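Supplementary Note 3. Input sequence used for the single-chain structure prediction.
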Amino acid sequence: MRFDRKPDERFEIRLSGTGGQGIITAGMILGEACAFYAGLNVCMTQSYGPEARGGACRAELVFSDEEIDAPKPEKVDLFLAMSQQAYDKYKHAVKEWGIVIVDSSIVKYDSAKNLFPLPFTTIAREKVGFAVTANIVAVGFIAALTGLADYEAMKKVVARKVPPGTEKTNYKALRLGFEAAAEPVSTAGIPIDGYISTDVLTVDPDVNIRDAVRKMLDAGTEMVLVTEGGKLEGVFTFFDTIKALARGKKPGRTPVRKFMSRNVVTCSRDSTLGQVLILMEENRYKNIPVVDEDGNLVGMVSYYSVQDREDRDIALKESVDFINATRTLLTGDRWSALKSIASSVPRVSPDTPVSEIAAKMSLRRADSVIVVDEDDRPIGILTERDINRRVVARGLDPENTPASKVMTKRLVTISNRATITEAFERMVKGGFHHLPLVNSKGKLRGAVSLADIAHIIHSRYYLYETIGEDQVPPYED
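The predicted structure, written as discrete structure tokens, is reproduced below.
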């Protein structure tokens, strides 16, 4: 697929987004591919300073067969917006025949001629496994759409511009961008209709908590939608059970309406898959209910329904390759800052009753507690799922059930001197979301989550893209 544009002596492009998205890197990749392999003269200018740290940053390129005497474009032939702020700021600075490309995963855009809405972030997250590669998907799409550079030329430059060891991941992102340009753009919006499940677990608001928990466990889910007369009234989760126990309520006598969440984040059939994934990411949800204009429940979109098994397995494997490759960003194998990102975690004794544990979890909004012995050594873990499955569903009395009776005793720990790489690999291979940290004497010193590690890795990756590998400062303990 190619677009028709007015012939001109020069072609001007503005790439824009939020600082840290790799906009500058994308511009350098496209510019070098055209200069070194397509025989064009290229000039690039870029934003720095405060704009490069979260504002509307940009990279502007001018391409020409002739010498370029005016390197700064005003109205451009092609405009890419990877953020709402960037779109709002630059959308009018486009020539009459100009092309506007937006990341429809993020940007709410106006209808216009020559508009290409593509969910670059969604594609990167779903198909590559890393949302941070959205810039590579986008620049691949632009190269293919305009015909400025072919795939092999772009691939050669990508190899030089991305963090060492992440080449294969970025090649995949680049290829997906080229493939997207070969398809009709109207089909790339990814409507959610094909991802809506109508087989949704629901309960009436007056069902008691114990019965609701048993239904959730039977269905293999951690949440249930609460409906009345077909209308969505709320959502009840395992953590809502914890809140009820913390207030001394009896699960067999307390209806879910007392503790369900009423402010439910929903979407409609008109939502795009990208919009739904953004809702999931912003709210840390794995499922989003779909409702009609009258508030009636239509179904549910699950995060896992938007990825097939093969893609998830590939993403999992590449996540291990990715963390190993980014050791250079983390100042190599000597980097031992794992303990600096660890958080404090509620700890209890083996004799602590579940009712008291629930109160601690509710107060701290924690999904687990570590059970320690008299020497502060971890001997078990008790999660919100454990409490729901082993206490509530079985009808045990929370006030007379000690942690030792229902905790998981096979606890995996890691030294607080371990590296982030070691912690990440152990979590991925073992399927853990949390790891308790212990000192040389085996005493509990905190816990680290998979989310903590992902945040650090991605922030370092963004720094690499924004200011270059040599300028990335070491992470201090």
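The chain has three domains: 10-187, 193-306, 312-471. The domain at 193-306 is CATH 3.10.580.10 (CBS-domain).
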